[in-house]
Specification:
The chain has helices at residues 24-35, 49-62, 80-88, 92-95, and strands spanning 15-19, 40-44, 69-72, 75-78. It has 97 residues and is α+β, with helices and mostly antiparallel strands. α1 (24-35) links the parallel β1 and β2. The structure holds glutathione. This is Glutaredoxin domain-containing protein.
Length: 97
Protein backbone atom coordinates (compact mmCIF):
# COMPACT_ATOMS: atom_id res chain seq x y z
CA UNK A 1 0.00 0.00 0.00
CA UNK A 2 1.08 3.51 -0.81
CA UNK A 3 2.65 5.37 2.11
CA UNK A 4 0.50 8.37 2.84
CA UNK A 5 1.24 11.06 5.39
CA UNK A 6 -0.86 14.09 6.35
CA UNK A 7 1.47 16.21 4.22
CA UNK A 8 0.29 14.30 1.15
CA UNK A 9 -3.29 15.45 1.65
CA UNK A 10 -4.31 18.06 -0.84
CA UNK A 11 -7.44 20.11 -0.46
CA UNK A 12 -8.58 23.67 -0.97
CA UNK A 13 -10.06 23.43 2.54
CA UNK A 14 -7.96 23.62 5.69
CA UNK A 15 -9.93 20.86 7.36
CA UNK A 16 -10.35 17.36 5.96
CA UNK A 17 -12.56 14.80 7.64
CA UNK A 18 -12.53 11.13 6.69
CA UNK A 19 -15.79 9.58 7.82
CA UNK A 20 -18.70 7.40 6.87
CA UNK A 21 -22.43 7.85 6.57
CA UNK A 22 -23.60 5.78 9.54
CA UNK A 23 -20.90 6.84 11.97
CA UNK A 24 -22.29 8.81 14.91
CA UNK A 25 -18.88 10.20 15.92
CA UNK A 26 -18.43 11.49 12.38
CA UNK A 27 -21.82 13.21 12.55
CA UNK A 28 -20.88 14.83 15.86
CA UNK A 29 -17.57 16.07 14.48
CA UNK A 30 -19.25 17.41 11.34
CA UNK A 31 -21.88 19.16 13.46
CA UNK A 32 -19.27 20.92 15.57
CA UNK A 33 -17.40 22.13 12.49
CA UNK A 34 -20.65 23.29 10.90
CA UNK A 35 -21.73 25.09 14.10
CA UNK A 36 -18.41 26.90 14.14
CA UNK A 37 -18.79 27.78 10.46
CA UNK A 38 -15.56 25.97 9.68
CA UNK A 39 -15.44 24.81 6.09
CA UNK A 40 -14.21 21.28 5.68
CA UNK A 41 -13.80 18.68 3.00
CA UNK A 42 -15.71 15.54 3.84
CA UNK A 43 -14.24 12.33 2.45
CA UNK A 44 -16.77 9.55 2.74
CA UNK A 45 -15.00 6.22 3.03
CA UNK A 46 -18.19 4.25 2.41
CA UNK A 47 -18.89 5.97 -0.89
CA UNK A 48 -15.38 6.20 -2.32
CA UNK A 49 -12.89 3.34 -2.54
CA UNK A 50 -10.13 5.90 -2.98
CA UNK A 51 -11.01 7.68 0.26
CA UNK A 52 -11.20 4.36 2.08
CA UNK A 53 -7.72 3.44 0.77
CA UNK A 54 -6.39 6.83 1.85
CA UNK A 55 -7.93 6.48 5.30
CA UNK A 56 -6.42 3.03 5.67
CA UNK A 57 -2.97 4.23 4.61
CA UNK A 58 -3.14 7.24 6.91
CA UNK A 59 -4.43 5.05 9.74
CA UNK A 60 -1.45 2.73 9.32
CA UNK A 61 0.99 5.62 9.22
CA UNK A 62 -0.56 7.28 12.26
CA UNK A 63 -1.44 4.08 14.09
CA UNK A 64 -5.08 5.15 14.30
CA UNK A 65 -7.97 2.81 13.61
CA UNK A 66 -11.27 4.62 13.97
CA UNK A 67 -13.23 7.21 12.04
CA UNK A 68 -13.58 10.09 11.94
CA UNK A 69 -9.99 11.02 11.14
CA UNK A 70 -9.63 14.78 11.15
CA UNK A 71 -6.80 16.85 9.71
CA UNK A 72 -6.27 20.57 10.14
CA UNK A 73 -3.61 22.27 8.07
CA UNK A 74 -1.94 18.94 7.28
CA UNK A 75 -1.85 18.05 10.95
CA UNK A 76 -3.68 15.03 12.30
CA UNK A 77 -5.69 16.13 15.30
CA UNK A 78 -7.50 12.83 15.99
CA UNK A 79 -11.19 11.95 16.06
CA UNK A 80 -14.40 13.50 17.33
CA UNK A 81 -13.47 13.58 21.02
CA UNK A 82 -10.07 15.11 20.16
CA UNK A 83 -11.77 17.75 18.02
CA UNK A 84 -14.17 18.73 20.82
CA UNK A 85 -11.37 18.73 23.41
CA UNK A 86 -9.18 20.88 21.20
CA UNK A 87 -12.01 23.34 20.69
CA UNK A 88 -12.90 23.45 24.40
CA UNK A 89 -9.26 24.24 25.21
CA UNK A 90 -9.35 27.07 22.67
CA UNK A 91 -6.88 25.38 20.34
CA UNK A 92 -8.96 24.77 17.24
CA UNK A 93 -9.63 28.24 15.86
CA UNK A 94 -5.96 29.36 16.15
CA UNK A 95 -4.93 26.30 14.10
CA UNK A 96 -7.05 27.60 11.23
CA UNK A 97 -5.26 30.93 10.91
N1 LIG B 1 -12.86 8.26 20.22
C1 LIG B 1 -13.22 8.17 18.81
C2 LIG B 1 -14.26 7.07 18.63
C3 LIG B 1 -14.59 6.85 17.15
C4 LIG B 1 -15.28 5.54 16.86
O1 LIG B 1 -15.42 4.65 17.75
N2 LIG B 1 -15.71 5.40 15.61
C5 LIG B 1 -16.33 4.17 15.16
C6 LIG B 1 -17.34 4.48 14.05
S1 LIG B 1 -18.60 5.61 14.59
C7 LIG B 1 -15.31 3.26 14.52
O2 LIG B 1 -14.45 3.70 13.77
N3 LIG B 1 -15.42 1.97 14.81
C8 LIG B 1 -14.58 0.98 14.17
C9 LIG B 1 -13.54 0.45 15.08
O3 LIG B 1 -13.60 0.73 16.30
O4 LIG B 1 -12.62 -0.22 14.59
C10 LIG B 1 -13.74 9.54 18.36
O5 LIG B 1 -14.12 10.35 19.21
O6 LIG B 1 -13.68 9.82 17.17
Amino acid sequence: MQVLTPADLKSDKKVILYGATHCPYCSKAKALLANLNIEFEYRGTDVSAQFEQEREALGKHLNYETIPMIFVNNQFIGGNSDLHELHEKGGLLPLLK
